[in-house]
């Protein structure tokens, strides 16, 4: 008899959506925005996709605790935040959150998130015109208002600089199979 081979896969997709103003966000009309760090006249796309990330050890442990009835805070609408920061340090499973020294921010879940369908959990948050106006280079999901909680995952990927007046959203979909 051949031994059972257990395999689990996960796939993560981050979606950054950019709105040039609060009004455009309210109308759900994303568009390109100026790229302040790029060549003169360059723009950032309305949508950017980041494939993959690193699950963090503390987040894995918290998720397993939640599954088995433990007391860890859930990654639900009441607790989960999406965090962004300006550190470009590569993601590593031993990290415990965002690595930025000062430029980091967290946003609550949008109405109806997180959501689960077809083996995929999706979180979504909006960073308003006055929040997270700095270079976006790292992203995470945490089960608290900031890095004092357990961070589920982290990815480092330069997405440009958000400026005052713009609204950017982050959507994170994790699929297990």
Notes on the protein architecture:
This protein is mainly beta and 177 residues long. The protein has one domain. Helix content is 10%, strand content 36%. It has two helices and twelve strands, in the order βαββββαβββββββ. The strands form three sheets. It has a five-stranded antiparallel β-sheet with strand order 4-1-12-9-8. A five-stranded antiparallel β-sheet has the order 5-11-10-6-7. A hairpin with an 8-residue loop joins strand 10 and strand 11. The longest helix has 11 residues. The chain is globular.
Q: What's the short version?
A:
It contains 2 helices and 12 strands. By secondary structure, it is mainly beta.
* Secondary structure tally, helices: 2
Distance between the termini: 25 Å
The portion of residues forming beta strands comes to 35-45%
Query: What Rg is obtained from the alpha carbons, in whole angstroms?
Result: 17 Å
Helix content: under 10%
Query: Main sheet: which strands, in order across?
Result: 4-1-12-9-8
Largest sheet: 5 strands, antiparallel
- Return the average pLDDT rounded to an integer: 95
**How many structural domains does the protein architecture include?**
1
Return the string of H and E elements: EHEEEEHEEEEEEE
How many DSSP E strands?
12
Structural class: mainly beta
Low-confidence stretches: none
Q: What overall form do the CA principal axes indicate?
A: globular
